[in-house]
Automatic annotation (TrEMBL):
It is a multi-pass membrane protein. It comes from the Bacteria. One of its GO terms (molecular function) is manganese ion transmembrane transporter activity. This is Putative manganese efflux pump MntP. It comes from Geoalkalibacter ferrihydriticus DSM 17813. It holds the Pfam family Mntp. Belongs to the MntP (TC 9.B.29) family. The chain crosses the membrane at residues 6-28, 40-61, 67-86, 107-126, 132-153. GO terms for cellular component: plasma membrane. Probably functions as a manganese efflux pump. It is found in: Cell membrane.
Amino acid sequence: MGFLTLIGLSVALAMDAFAVALGVGVVLPRMTARQVLRLSFHFGLFQALMPVIGWLAGLTVQEWISAYAPWVAFGLLGFIGGKMIWEAFQEEKALREHRDPTRGLSLFLLSVATSIDALAVGLTLAMLEISVWFPALIIGLVAAAFTTAGMLLGRRIGTAWGPKVEIFGGLVLLAIGLKILLEELL
């Protein structure tokens, strides 16, 4: 996987985290540096761990589906991208139900929800026989940076961009899946 593809993938995966962080920045009555650090750390950590978990799971099924790997990668990334686009309009409602989403169960659930897509990416990397360690690190760092930026921007601009950013991330994942499929077919 080329570095630009990895960056594109990382940015696309970070769009969930960015959109949620944007919403969190809006709903917090008073945002502290501790809240920003806590959310950024957890989103980055979960985004880095999920591809590793998916990759390890993918290694166990790789030999059975290696011939179909590009199609599976296309299907998984297409599904994830479509899911991101579909969910872009539902996250704002969920954020308003919590007082401080940077603590406790809310923090855990948001961390899992924003990183579940990375699990499928890890599975895809295993099927394509790509080592997961460097991509997981980059994915985690990009997610943490985008979370920080999202919270800070959310504090300033409100929720106007939230769904649009996540839609863009979904489209990027769809494009990466299509690229993998076309490389195999051509």
